[in-house]
């Protein structure tokens, strides 16, 4: 059974052209004029683009005494509804738990996925077992390791552990990721705010000013450089963090930054809302920022100093958020966005002229496929690539509403926002999962995407580090000892 997408304009990260696309056996098998298939999808007036890749989700994540409410079924359904065809989630070993054990747990969670997925492995503690199992994890197709510099007493790791793990990543040809916030300072600020009676959701933002992110981002970059590893900084939300990334890139360091659609389009005024639920639903780390940071993030996407737009989708219901009534430090941290990332970015990026359609494809799909070393299987409209395709209708509009969303939670942080630009069709490995908002996805269709280590950047960096490594000075007349 083959499918042909006809009458559309193909938009990739570097090209825009009119052509048909023929899909068979889950792959793109031909691109050209006048193609014929068993089934035809009409893309008149639409862009035919690589499906989105969200490199940062937390589906059914155990966190802050509960589990995030979207699992791999509802989460990937939401993804497909918004034109995203692959998610990368985080396997999180609990303290003392082996990495392979955690990987097995996340394998079990993901069996109902509607679209393809991969994992990052989190390094939540350090020891010989972790060191050894990192190699086994890489052999099983995970080449990225996540480190939390915040959440003291829970997921946080310290600088010595970061350095050890980053060095191990460099040896294995893997890439470390960081959640960059100074967890020690956050813990101090939280205690101080609570002691002063500042216990509402707005205090969450006060406890995590942009300085804690800027400092940690710079520290992680320098540690990665000393360890000889590239670095991917998740949820870059402010100018201070962006500045550190920009400076590092200009100095030749291999560093990438990932703004979230939430930080690009929502700001800290949400926490001043008199409705406790409204504010608590928007509690995430890093928090929403002063609007001025948004200009920095958009400029980063335009200039290439920031590389990918993600969601950090970690959805908690209002009931779960209410665990933190009277103590903001107990509000589960996280917001949703999987269904809305692509339409919101198109509306606020392409429709405003901040991004070209090609840049949109780069930051929603192709760049991350390259960074994660799964390009061009993913992130491409090329013969041989997986047929993860979104047929994007730039004229289609909707008002975002929790009442119509795929996510399992009872609200949406983008509620009431008008978007222009939505999928007409979303295809996951050739299977039509969305037709003008109607879902025909299949639970369990999604498959794990294994990713090889030693991508081109890892290779180049290790070559350079080897070439510039400290070497002993060769001397001829060595003085006798003790003289
Ligand atoms: O608040 C957030 N971001 N929750 C999910 C976990 C994380 O820090 O990414
Ligand atoms: Zn994080
Ligand atoms: Zn996250
Ligand atoms: Zn299937």
From TrEMBL:
<comment type="similarity">
    <text>Belongs to the metallo-dependent hydrolases superfamily. Hydantoinase/dihydropyrimidinase family.</text>
</comment>
<dbReference type="GO" id="GO:0004157">
    <property type="term" value="F:dihydropyrimidinase activity"/>
</dbReference>
<dbReference type="GO" id="GO:0055086">
    <property type="term" value="P:nucleobase-containing small molecule metabolic process"/>
</dbReference>
<dbReference type="GO" id="GO:0005829">
    <property type="term" value="C:cytosol"/>
</dbReference>
<comment type="function">
    <text>Catalyzes the hydrolysis of dihydropyrimidines and of the structurally related DL-5-mono-substituted hydantoins, to produce N-carbamoyl-D-amino acids.</text>
</comment>
<keyword id="KW-0378">Hydrolase</keyword>
<dbReference type="InterPro" id="IPR050378">
    <property type="entry name" value="Metallo-dep_Hydrolases_sf"/>
</dbReference>
<keyword id="KW-0479">Metal-binding</keyword>
<dbReference type="Pfam" id="PF01979">
    <property type="entry name" value="Amidohydro_1"/>
</dbReference>
<feature type="modified residue" description="N6-carboxylysine">
    <location>
        <position position="146"/>
    </location>
</feature>
<dbReference type="GO" id="GO:0072527">
    <property type="term" value="P:pyrimidine-containing compound metabolic process"/>
</dbReference>
<protein>
    <recommendedName>
        <fullName>D-hydantoinase/dihydropyrimidinase</fullName>
        <ecNumber>3.5.2.2</ecNumber>
    </recommendedName>
</protein>
<keyword id="KW-0862">Zinc</keyword>
<feature type="domain" description="Amidohydrolase-related">
    <location>
        <begin position="47"/>
        <end position="419"/>
    </location>
</feature>
<comment type="subunit">
    <text>Homotetramer.</text>
</comment>
<dbReference type="InterPro" id="IPR011059">
    <property type="entry name" value="Metal-dep_hydrolase_composite"/>
</dbReference>
<dbReference type="InterPro" id="IPR011778">
    <property type="entry name" value="Hydantoinase/dihydroPyrase"/>
</dbReference>
<dbReference type="InterPro" id="IPR006680">
    <property type="entry name" value="Amidohydro-rel"/>
</dbReference>
<dbReference type="GO" id="GO:0046872">
    <property type="term" value="F:metal ion binding"/>
</dbReference>
<dbReference type="InterPro" id="IPR032466">
    <property type="entry name" value="Metal_Hydrolase"/>
</dbReference>
């Amino acid at each position: 059974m083959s499918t042909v997408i006809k009458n559309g304009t193909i938009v990739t990260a570097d090209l825009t052209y009119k052509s048909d696309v023929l899909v068979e056996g889950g792959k793109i098998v031909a691109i050209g004029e006048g193609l014929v298939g068993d089934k035809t999808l009409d893309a008149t007036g639409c862009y035919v683009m690589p499906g989105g890749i969200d490199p940062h989700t937390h589906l059914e994540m155990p966190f802050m005494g509960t589990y995030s409410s979207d699992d791999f079924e509802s989460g990937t359904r939401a993804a497909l509804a918004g034109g995203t065809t692959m998610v990368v989630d985080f396997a999180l070993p609990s303290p003392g738990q082996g990495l392979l054990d955690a990987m097995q747990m996340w394998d079990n969670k993901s069996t109902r996925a509607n679209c393809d997925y991969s994992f990052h492995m989190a390094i939540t503690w350090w020891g010989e077992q972790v060191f050894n199992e990192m190699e086994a994890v890489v052999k099983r197709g995970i080449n990225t390791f996540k480190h939390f510099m915040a959440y003291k007493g829970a997921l946080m790791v310290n600088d010595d552990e970061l350095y050890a793990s980053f060095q191990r990543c460099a040896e294995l040809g893997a890439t470390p990721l960081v959640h960059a916030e100074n967890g020690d300072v956050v813990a101090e600020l939280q205690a101080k705010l609570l002691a002063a009676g500042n216990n509402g959701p707005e205090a969450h933002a006060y406890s995590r000013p942009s300085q804690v992110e800027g400092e940690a981002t710079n520290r992680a970059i320098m540690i990665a450089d000393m360890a000889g590893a590239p670095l991917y900084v998740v949820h870059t939300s402010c100018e201070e963090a962006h500045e550190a990334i920009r400076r590092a890139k200009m100095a030749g360091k291999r560093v990438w930054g990932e703004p979230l659609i939430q930080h690009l389009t929502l700001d800290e005024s949400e926490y001043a809302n008199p409705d406790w639920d409204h504010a608590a639903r928007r509690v995430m780390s890093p928090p929403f920022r002063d609007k001025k940071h948004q200009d920095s993030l958009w400029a980063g996407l335009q200039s290439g100093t920031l590389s990918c737009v993600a969601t950090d989708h970690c959805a908690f219901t209002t009931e779960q958020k209410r665990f933190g009534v009277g103590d903001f430090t107990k509000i589960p941290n996280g917001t949703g966005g999987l269904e809305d990332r692509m339409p919101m970015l198109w509306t606020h990026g392409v429709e405003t002229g901040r991004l070209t359609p090609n840049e949109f494809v780069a930051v929603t799909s192709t760049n991350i496929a390259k960074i994660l070393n799964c390009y061009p299987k993913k992130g491409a409209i090329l013969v041989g690539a997986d047929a993860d395709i979104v047929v994007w209708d730039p004229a289609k509009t909707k008002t975002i509403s929790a009442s119509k969303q795929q996510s399992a939670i009872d609200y949406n942080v983008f509620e009431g926002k008008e978007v222009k630009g939505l999928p007409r069709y979303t295809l996951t490995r050739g299977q039509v999962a969305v037709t003008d908002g109607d879902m025909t996805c299949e639970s369990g269709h999604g498959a794990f995407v294994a990713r090889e280590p030693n991508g081109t950047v890892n290779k180049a960096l290790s070559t350079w580090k080897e070439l510039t490594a400290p070497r002993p000075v060769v001397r001829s007349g060595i003085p006798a000892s003790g003289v």
